[in-house]
Amino acid sequence: MNRSFNHHPMLLDWAAILMFTLGALYGFWHRENSILVVLGVMFVLLTMVALDKALHTIYVLTDDGKLTIRRGRFKKSKTILLADIKEVKTLPLAFRLGSYVLIELKDGKVESIQPETSEAFIAAIRKRL
Known about the structure:
The chain is 41% helix and 29% strand. The protein is an alpha+beta fold. The radius of gyration is 18 Å and the shape is elongated.
C-alpha cells in the first residue's frame, strides 16, 4: 500500500510568494514603463511556480521500495530507492523557524524535504528499510 505525505509550506515559502506578488503588482502599477510590465509578468510566473510548489508537493512511499518526490505540477518527479538511503533525520531551519527532514544517500548526496508530519514520515521510512 502506497503511503503519501503532504508538503508543509514553511514561512520562507509564503515569504517568497508574497515578494513575487508584490513585485508583480509593482510592475503592473507602473504600466507606462514596458520593462516593468515585462518584469511584472515574470513575477506572476514566479508566483505561480512558487504557489504550485507550496501547495502541490507530495512525498509518496511506494510498495516497491521507492520514495517519489513530486514538487508541484511544473517540475519533474524525483525517485529515490529506499535501499539507497543511509540516514534520515530532522534538522532545524535557520533561526529555529521550523524543521526539515534530511535524507542522506549512500553515495553522499542529500535531499531535504518538509513533510507535514516529520515523525510519521521518518517512522514510515525506517519501517520500510
